[in-house]
Amino acid sequence: MPEPNIKIGLEIHVPLKTQQKLFCECPTNYYESGEPNTNICEVCTGMPGSKPYPLNGSALESAVMISKLLNCKNVSEKIYVKRKHYNYPDLPSGYQRTSEPLGINGELNSIGIWEIHLEEDPGRYDLETGRVDYNRSGVPLVEIVTAPDMKSADDVRNFMKDLINLLKYTERIVDVGGVMRADVNISIENGARVEIKNINSVRGAYKAIGYEILRQKNLMKRGGVVKQETRGFNEKSMITISLRVKETAEDYRYIPDPDIPPLLIEQDFIDGIELPETPQKRKERLIRKYKISEMYAQTIVRDKGIADLFEIVAERINPGISAEWICREVLRQLNYRGIDLNESKLNPEIIIELLDIVEKNEITENTGKKILERIIDTGEIPEKIVRDENLGRISEADELSVVVDEVIKENPAAVNDYKSGKNEALNFLMGMVMRKMQRRADVKVVTELLKKNITLG
Predict the structure, then answer these.
(1) For 197-232, how does the pLDDT look when each residue is reduced to its tens digit (9 = 90+)?
(2) Which phi-psi region, left, alpha or beta, contains residue 339 (left: φ > 0; alpha: ψ -120 to 50)?
(3) Where are the beta strands (DSSP E) in 153-274?
């Protein structure tokens, strides 16, 4: 039986990095503020009689930059800031200010971008306590609306990772505590569209979509009808929950905000915005400058933090070694933990020091990998670990020869296999020596001793 036709579109909201909120002068560092309701004023808390300030020019520039990066067509006519009405505790004025599209008909990796908007963030409502913190209220957001071009949770995950990474390259977004909130729209076989609200991570989106597709399929198999509705995603149970019958645009009662004049974005303004280096361009530059492989360069630029780390390390350590360790070992450890680089204790100086002592043959590669596995969580100094715990490379032939002879005597079958031409037996014997030496032995010296002592024996 063929798979049903699935259509998935996204509405992604990303906070922009500005000094002030969208329509007032309050600071935007809500993620650093320990006390609730301290970065607020009459405007961002919707006090009666308050009037919005002129729209934040820095936020507008950032939104237009993102629109250009996503290959959107500029909207040349007047753009109105509208009031989107709905009643919720985190929206003190009873409406959210959101612009008409600044850019339309864009594309990223074959996924259509329908519209780019600029809007203000609501406050933060705690469902358990019923308390609201308005420090975030009024912070500028860019809203990116995609076409329903994705067919699976994997498609969405890949797109969101690519989009977030591209936006990080602008250095215009807030990269603290997650960089986006997403609403996901799903329909199966052209059925009713179900919206899942306020998903806070790529992993959350992947899990929510997987559950929702399965829920709708099972409902349809039982003869049920998928109704148009809004659902929430429970991060703990990993299921979606019905919230309300889906509103239409008419339900929001959009009207132009009478206190904000319409925008007219001139072409000179758009042309004057310099685009950042994109991941693709950075990949080409890394290959050209550092002479690393395309495979490593492609892996490195997928995460701006990793790319920044590589460039700092590669100025001090052989670029080939830097790329290999970062792509293979650092990313392996991060992926195992399910964290980003900025969530670990690693920094460029720690990586430089570790690779320096590996490159100088002061420790073995295996020891270096074990140290990395530890310092990614602790931030300890590699040289101090090596010194305090006596982890330096052992390359003295006399010391190693004793252990090599022990291994030869303890494994006569492997020795005979090697003598009969089975070279893989040497690898087994090597492993036995390395285990006894806690992987501190010099591989080259051990190999030579094994061959020599087996022949002499």
Answers:
(1) 889 889 899 999 999 999 999 998 898 888 899 898
(2) beta
(3) 181-188, 194-199, 229-234, 239-245, 255-256
* Residue of 338, 350, 413 whose CA lies nearest to 376: 350
Tokens representing 255 are 């009207």
- 104 and 115 in contact (C-beta within 8 Å)? yes
- Asked whether 124 and 90 are in contact (CB, 8 A), the reply is yes
Exposed/middle/buried for residue 239 (C-beta within 10 Å: 0-12, 13-18, 19+): middle
The residue count of the chain comes to 457
Q: Do residues 227 and 188 make contact, with C-beta atoms less than 8 angstroms apart?
A: no
C-alpha span between 278 and 282 (Å, rounded): 6
* Domain architecture of the chain: domains with CATH: 6-271 (no CATH), 279-388 (no CATH), 397-456 (1.10.10.410)
DSSP 3-state of 303: coil
**Helix, strand, or coil (residue 146):** strand
For residue 180, give the nearest of 198, 162, 195, 153 by alpha carbon: 198
pTM: 0.83
pLDDT at position 1: 44
Asked if 283 and 297 count as a contact pair (C-beta separation under 8 A), the reply is yes
Task: Compute the distance between CA of residue 232 and CA of residue 167 in angstroms, rounded to an integer.
Answer: 26
Cα 160 → chain centroid? 8
Per DSSP, what are the bridge partners of residue 244? 230
Q: Which amino acid is at 224?
A: G
Tokens 């067919």, residue? 151
Supply the pLDDT for residue 243.
Answer: 83
Q: What is the DSSP letter of 179?
A: S
Beta-bridged to residue 119, according to DSSP, are: 98, 141
DSSP structural state of residue 151: -
- Show the tokens assigned to 389: 């715990």
Q: Look-up: residue for tokens 């079958």?
A: 413
Pairing of strands 81-85, 6-15: unpaired
pLDDT tens by residue, 363-420:
888 889 989 999 999 999 998 988 877 666 665 666 667 777 777 888 888 888 787 7
Count helices and strands (H / E) in the chain. Answer: 16, 14
Phi, psi (5° rounding) for residue 233? -115, 125
R_g of the chain computed on alpha carbons: 29
For the chain, report the end-to-end CA distance as a whole number of angstroms.
67
